[in-house]
Amino acid sequence: MPEGHSVHRITRQFALHFVGKTIAASSPQGRFAGGASEIDGLEMTDAKAVGKQMFLEFDHRLWLRVHLGMYGAWDFAGNITADATTASAGGRMGQTNQRGTVVPDDNEPSLSSIGAPRRLRMAEQERLGEALDTFPPEPIGAVRVRLLASDTVADLRGPTACEVLQPEEVQAVIAKLGPDPLVDDPDEGRARFVDAAIKKATPIGLILMDQNVVSGIGNVYRAELLFRARLDPHKPGKLVPRETLEELWADWTYLLGVGVSTGQMMTMDGLSHEDYVNALARRDDRHWVYHRAGKPCRVCGTPIVMEVAAGRKLYFCPVDQT
């Protein structure tokens, strides 16, 4: 499932290429025909993300709420000629380091040198596709909703949620979500997270995945945050010291910023330039414990454990996190 950084990056593409333009909305698949007709012909006036959910505003009165879930993805096509995040603008989407250096890959040219209209897929991974011969391209597959601006089109497939809401309905949805470091005031967000987590008897490994407690954290960031804090994922939230919870919030703020800037869930610090470039190119080289079941801990050498918690795979070191 796309985690918070991916949804923020997708939303920034809408802010860059769609906000301020009149949008032709349709449902090639047919399942969202009614909702598409409500926003068809309206101007997109805002685009924002809270955790794993995104909200697109039309003419200051209607909102399109989208939750990608496990299978959803946006495909952009047309004038996608620059990354919407400043730190990555000099290189390929999701494959630049924090200094903007491009990782060589003949299959994915830099967005800054595309020239012709291109396709761009955005979900957990971002992939730049072939040049377009015509614009807009024909919808491919089960496109739930198509949003067409003057020179850019976005196709949504497979979302968990896709609905048109009134402003008060949007506020009701957001009110139920935990704080997002890129949305909430830093001090207020930290206080909301800590105050909620410290009251729970639930294991901290489950609390971090609870979108009502904190927004945007998924399976990867959960495992990495806990390891970076050397925190046992089974420890109840009420037994985690307040200062440790505050440090978790600070680290989530940091990692989310890195994810938005690079397009990658880069969770290892202190790497050499060569190791950093390798980590951006290969997921196995950018995480401490995630997806490393049975492999030696990078710190102590103990095999990393994987267990299922609430239907999701949880990775941790049984030595460094106890």
- CATH class bucket of the largest domain: Alpha Beta
**How many β strands by DSSP?**
12
Q: Give me the number of helical elements.
A: 8
What structural category do the secondary elements indicate? alpha+beta
Question: Can you tell me the overall shape?
Answer: globular
Mean of residue pLDDT values: 85
Strand content: 15-25%
Share of helix among residues? 25-40%
Description:
There is one protein chain. The protein is globular. The model is unreliable at 84-118 (pLDDT under 50). It has 2 domains: 4-173, MutM-like, N-terminal (N-terminal domain of MutM-like DNA repair proteins, Alpha-Beta Barrel), CATH 3.20.190; 178-316, Helicase, Ruva Protein, domain 3 (Orthogonal Bundle), CATH 1.10.8. It is an alpha+beta fold. The strands form 2 sheets. Strands 7-6-5-9-8-1-2-3-4-10 form a 10-stranded antiparallel sheet. Strands 11-12 form a two-stranded antiparallel sheet. It is built from 8 helices and 12 strands. Helix 1 crosses helix 7 and helix 4 packs across helix 7 (242-262). The chain has helices at residues 4-17, 33-39, 167-175, 186-197, 204-207, 219-228, 242-262, 273-281, and strands spanning 22-26, 42-50, 53-58, 62-67, 73-78, 118-122, 126-131, 143-148, 152-157, 161-165, 305-309, 312-316.
